[in-house]
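Dear U.,

Please find below the material for section 3 of the report. The protein was modelled together with thiamine diphosphate; I have listed the sequence and SMILES used, followed by the predicted complex structure.
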Amino acid sequence: MSNKLDNINTLDDFKKLNINELPDLATDIREFLISNVSKTGGHLAPNLGVVELTMALHYVFDSPKDKIIFDVGHQCYVHKILTGRKNKFSTLRKMNGISGFPKTRESIHDIFNTGHSSTSISSALGIATANKLAGKNDYTIAVIGDGALTGGLAFEGLNNAKIDDTNLIVVLNDNQMSISPSVGNLSSYLNQLRSSSLYTSSKQGVKKFLGYIPFLGKFLTTIIENSKDTLRHLILPNSRMFEQFGFTYLGPINGHDINDLIKILNRAKKVKKPVLLHVVTMKGKGYEYAEKNPDTFHGVGSFDIESGKISESSPSYSKRFGKELVKLAKENKKVVAITAAMPKRYWSFGI
Ligand SMILES: Cc1ncc(C[n+]2csc(CCOP(=O)(O)OP(=O)(O)O)c2C)c(N)n1
């Protein structure tokens, strides 16, 4: 069986593909990720979740003229594969090898050195504003997870983004997971938005019904199309939060349907103000063990592909830190710990 990824060495190679070739390439990229990360270790589950999304972004936008910033940056592997670094993946996270995060020194397609979470919206806003001042129409895209969106700095970006004529697109990669499952008010809010598939299906249902009515049906369908925002607010009043921050909210959309992603990104391009595109993905998509245990396979050492068994490694910093903290907490009831979205990493040792 031919492997489409074999022929993709540069972004140009990728962009020459026909849209109907993309789903097969997505399958090949997943196989490549699983095979490589099983040997080198790395952030597997986050990358498996953004295969179609990253492909769609590079298909629709023109990097590095348009700038794609990955929040935290641990989900940049597909971006690295598509931007000429496929053949370096055996060196991932090794001395003198490619980094597991975007690095400006590594590629002109890596825009911002990340690692610290929640910085993408502010940095993208800075670039988009500079573009606007320079009279450029280039796009700036921040890809941020629902986990990273809970970090305070993300709200600094949202707080300042109310600028018209700015080609800023925030893609919210909502997989309902941080490292551990997402918690808190924002998570509940996104839950409500996600359940708006009810909105999509009811709108489609109404359109289908109207389609059966001669003449008048077509007219009414057009009205519904044009009033989609009004309809959305009637059915989903909560989708207003991002809009009150000055964004046009698009979504929620299935982040594994590459055709729909391409369509909606092209639509986002036409909006003359900041856009928040809500994309729903599955962390670990395509590798059964990572789908079942996205937390364990968030960042993982080498593992056996068939059994999903992870190799024994020396205890990580998080593991040592967690153990010590649990010990202290057992001795002193006044010890209270707060974690940035990763309780299992720290607390699963000894309690
Ligand atoms: C300031 C800071 N706090 C905590 C972390 C640890 N951390 C790494 S990834 C991540 C969140 C991951 O969740 P999400 O953004 O939803 O991405 P996903 O992995 O689910 O795709 C966190 C909190 C960090 N990198 N930086």
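For the text of the report, you could mention the following: Strands lie at 67-70, 140-145, 168-174, 248-254, 275-280.

Regards,
Y.
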